[in-house]
User: What shape does this take?
Amino acid sequence: MPVLSFLQLQPVDFDSRYNLDYAKGGIPAKLTRAGLPYYLPIGWYRHALKVDKKYKDGSVWLGSSNAPGEWPVAFHGTNSKAVRNISDKGLLTSSVVRDRMLKEAINQKGEEVNRPGLYVATHCNGGSHPYYTEKFDVQTPAEKTKTFQVVFQCRVRPDSYTIHTAPVKVGEAWRVVDPEAVRPYGILLKNTDIKVEFEEDDN
Assistant: This one.
C-alpha cells in the first residue's frame, strides 16, 4: 500500500488479521475496554501493528472482554515523519515540546508526575484528530495524489495517568509520564478526500 510505504513501514510491521475498517456501516460508536468507555474511531481504517510477542507480560492488556489486566483504549495524533519511530520505540517523553497540563497533573497526583508528560485522548475524532494531526500527500500508482492523516490507537496502563478536559475539544486527555504505560497497537489512517459522517458519544 503506497501510504504505508510512504510512512517507511513494511508488511512485517503489521498483523493484518486485526485490520479494521471503521468507516463501514454497522460499527458501534462506543464499546468498553478495561471497564472504561472505548470510543471507536469512526471514519478511519486501522492497520494493526504486530505486537503479539512484543511485550514480556503477554497479551492480556490487549483484550476485549474487560477482564483483569486489560488496558483501556486511547489515541495519539501525530505527523507522518514520526510514525516510523513511534512504531519502533513507542511514545517517548523526549519528544515532548509542550506540556500544557503539567500543573493540573501535579495537583492531581503530586510531585511523582512532575516530569515531561505524553498525551493521549479518549476520542479520535475531536480528541487526537484534527487538533494533533498533520495532513500529508501520497502519490499513488495511478499518479494521483491522495491526502491522509494518521493517529495511533493505543492501550494505556490503568491508573498510570492524570485526567484532563483540555487541550482536547471532545472527551478527555490522559497525561502519562511513563512511556512504558502507553502501547501503540494500531495505525489509523484516513483519506481526507473522502467525507465520512460520524457520531461519537462523549459521555
User: Anything to note?
Assistant: Residues 2-191 form a domain with the Phosphoenolpyruvate Carboxykinase; domain 3 fold (CATH 3.90.228). The mean pLDDT is 92.
